């Protein structure tokens, strides 16, 4: 069997090993916590970078769509203006043609001449 001195020495070694184990466990826990915090920071930073890149990409797409819409609106306005001008020109040409035709009819010119071969119609006599 073991003597009391050996038992005390073994207990002392066990306590020392327990204390050493407690210190190492505390050190390990501290390192693990620090590494977990570092991982969280890196993860958050990478998420922030990803979000920032997504935001930049979205802004570029927004600007591109805005430019596309602006260009389309300008083209549509130009097309409408051109159509209105064509309509106005057509109406004015019709007015000029009507005025000219009226002038020709009133002055008996062109195809609206009075034929001299035809007799003028006799006026009906008034009955008394």
TrEMBL record:
SMART domains: IQ. One of its GO terms (biological process) is cilium organization. It comes from the Eukaryota. GO terms for cellular component: cytoplasm; motile cilium. It is found in: Cytoplasm, Cytoskeleton, Flagellum axoneme. Pfam families: IQ (PF00612). Keywords: Cell projection, Cilium, Cytoplasm, Cytoskeleton, Flagellum. Belongs to the DRC9 family. This is Dynein regulatory complex protein 9. The lineage of its organism: Eukaryota, Metazoa, Ecdysozoa, Arthropoda, Hexapoda.
């Amino acid at each position: 069997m073991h003597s009391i001195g050996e038992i005390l020495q073994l207990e002392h070694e066990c306590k020392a090993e327990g204390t050493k184990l407690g210190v190492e466990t505390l050190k390990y826990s501290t390192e693990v916590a620090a590494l977990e915090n570092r991982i969280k920071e890196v993860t958050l930073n990478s998420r922030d970078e990803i979000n920032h890149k997504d935001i930049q990409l979205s802004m570029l797409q927004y600007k591109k769509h805005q430019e596309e819409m602006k260009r389309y609106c300008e083209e549509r306005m130009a097309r409408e203006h051109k159509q209105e001008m064509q309509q106005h020109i057509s109406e004015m040409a019709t007015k000029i043609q009507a005025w000219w035709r009226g002038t020709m009819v009133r002055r008996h010119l062109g195809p609206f001449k009075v034929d001299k071969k035809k007799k003028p119609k006799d006026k009906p006599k008034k009955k008394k």
